[in-house]
Amino acid sequence: MSSFALWRLFHRGGNRGFSSTSLLAVIAFAAASAIFLTVLGGVHAFVWRSSPSHGLVEAFSGQSAQSGENAIYVILSLFACMLLLVPFASLSASAARLAAARRDARLAALRLAGATSGQVSRLTALEAAGQALIGSLIGMVLYVAMIPLIMPLHFQGRGFAVEELWVGPVALLVVAVLMTVLALISALSALMRVVVTPLGVSARVAPAALRKWRLIVFLVAIIAAVGIMKSPLSRYFGQAVAIAIVFGVIAACFALVNLIGPWVIAARARMRIRRPRNAATLVAMRRVLDNPKRAWRNVSGIALAVFVAGITSVCAYVGSAAQGSSEDMTLLRDIGTGGMLTLAFAAVLAAVSCGVMQAGNVYDQADQYRMLVLEGADRATLSKARFIEVFTPLKVVVLVSAACSMVLMLPLLGSAMTQPLTLLGFVAGVALCFLLVGIGVAAANHVAKGIGIVGERSDD
Amino acid sequence: MDYQRAAAAKTVPGDAMQPVALSQLALSHVSLALAAGESLAVMGPSGSGKSTLLHVLAGILRPTAGSVYLRGNDLARLGDAERTRLRRSEFGFVFQSGQLLPELPAIENIALPVMLGGTPYKQAISMAFSWLDALRMTPLAQRRPGEMSGGQMQRIAIARALCIRPSVVFADEPTGALDRKTGADVMRILTEACTQNGSSLVVVTHDPSVAAFCSRTVRMSDGLLVDQGASERSAR
């Protein structure tokens, strides 16, 4: 039987759980590509503005002060783009994994029935790729719909024009292809297990504890970074060196936060599990401890964005506080706006990511949920567990990254940090993150409502 | 006082409220009573309405007509929240498989239903531990379901069902996923534990050797109770 014939067999409809997970994956792919295209549009806009011929090369080769200024905007927008790559990649990967995971049992059965691993792999590949393609097409529509929302944002003292934000058909095609390939790779790697064993049994064992050395390395690096910033030597650095150091420190912090994130989340969950307040907390914290890396992946995008927004909000404050209307001040203000924008995009990606994860859990563990409801767990308890499972890691990472950016910026701009305006903008950004992630989980809870408590026995 | 009556019946054709064709009924004219501490096996072919009967008795499904009494209270008249509370305090469940949360160690899986009733963690854990001890499974306390055999998981599920000290334990094919010998072990533990606890037991099964563990067996066919069993009590 050809892979396509198998695929047709699986797509004759009539299976609700199946089509719902497909829908979830498509939503995730759509959100990821819409945001990616929007950010790409921003990069395009700054390249467009930087030279009369609207080319990337010209943006950097110009000699005038004006073109130097433009180059900084292009670099910073590329930087924001790179920042969003992390949550973007993790969302696409989790969407593909969701697509694959739901098929575990079915594909294992296919293998037992004699399908070759090649057929099984091709079938999954076809599935995930199809969802990614549909998702990215929807994402394109969303991207176009979002253009009017981005246009009024002021950068370099003026709003955007449509042709500045429109990335063009080639870029759209590239993003769609990229999306599909990424989905293919993620789905295939997620399915390795099933292909290896026809029994497809995913035995759960106690997870390996995350080592303490992560924390030690992290603390040493932070102290070193603060030391460099505060040292009298820093006065003699040229501007270029200073910028390089700032970027270097930020990049190092990413790596470090990534290193320590899962560990901190697991530590916090262990703390809460020692004496859980109620059943919802118990279930939620056990879930987090079951896979701290997964909990981290969902919110890691927000961690990075909060860290950057903490720094950029200081820029915004300096930019708005200064009396002069020089171009430097405009740049600082724009950096602040850009940082907040990045934070908002990261929040949307994280919200979709959390929603997809929780909805995936709902389907994967329908049996256990049914059992809990039978035993008298009301749905409010289960919904609460899902919220706690996402918000505990979120709170932890927001605290840690906000603290990190404060510690780093404090020596540079001590006074600005304590200004209510700076903090207000920052707090508003963080509140937005919580709100969006909350909406994501609420959507997952809505999915859970659709699952009845009367299951079907496998032998009936 | 501790006597429990359970009766479930569906509409007959011609009912003005809900006209349902007789052939569509999962249960029809079922009348059944269960005494405190009694163990009852419900047998019958697939699709005969065994599971529906169990769901109706446990207040999960509301019968379209008829009533289900637990100590004089009609379950069919209670709201969803009240039935949820009732299940939490009065009923325990053991299913074929897939009932333990994979992320929780055995001890917390047992304690969870108790915690759902609002009992603090420490107290719930110590209650769970006494059940583990009673069933001689203390070495399994920190194991997670993925690290246990099918028989061990069912034993944990039994401890979990009994931990809330329910008045009725409902078991739906509790040995369906086990081999004969392990299945017999699990059934012996289940019936003994229910007896010690004073809980009634309702077991839905295909397997006569499982039914043999119960004090009474009823048979179902096409939604009808065709054999009331030896020690029948009349339902009113």
Automatic annotation (TrEMBL), chain A:
The residue ranges crossing the membrane are: 21-47, 71-96, 132-151, 171-192, 213-229, 241-265, 295-319, 339-363, 396-417, 423-444
> What GO terms fall under cellular component here?
plasma membrane
Where's it found, cell-wise? Cell membrane
Q: How does it sit in the membrane?
A: Multi-pass membrane protein
State whether keyword Transmembrane helix applies: yes
| Domain spans labelled ABC3 transporter permease C-terminal | 78-193
Q: Keywords of this protein's UniProt record, alphabetized?
A: Cell membrane, Membrane, Transmembrane, Transmembrane helix
Protein name (record): Permease
User: What species was this sequence derived from?
Assistant: Bifidobacterium psychraerophilum
From TrEMBL, chain B:
CDD domains assigned to the protein according to its UniProt record, in alphabetical order: ABC_MJ0796_LolCDE_FtsE
The residue ranges crossing the membrane are none
Asked if the keyword Hydrolase belongs to this entry, the reply reads yes
Listed GO MF terms: ATP binding; ATP hydrolysis activity; transmembrane transporter activity
Give the EC number(s) listed in the UniProt record.
3.6.3.28
The chain positions of domain ABC transporter read 12-235
Matching entries from InterPro entries are given as: AAA+_ATPase, ABC_transporter-like_ATP-bd, ABC_transporter-like_CS, ABC_transpr_LolD-like, MacB-like_ATP-bd, P-loop_NTPase
Kindly indicate whether the keyword Cell membrane belongs to this entry.
no
| Keywords, comma-separated and alphabetical | ATP-binding, Hydrolase, Nucleotide-binding, Transport
**GO CC annotation terms, alphabetical:** plasma membrane
Q: What is this protein called?
A: ABC transporter ATP-binding protein
Which species does this protein come from? Bifidobacterium psychraerophilum
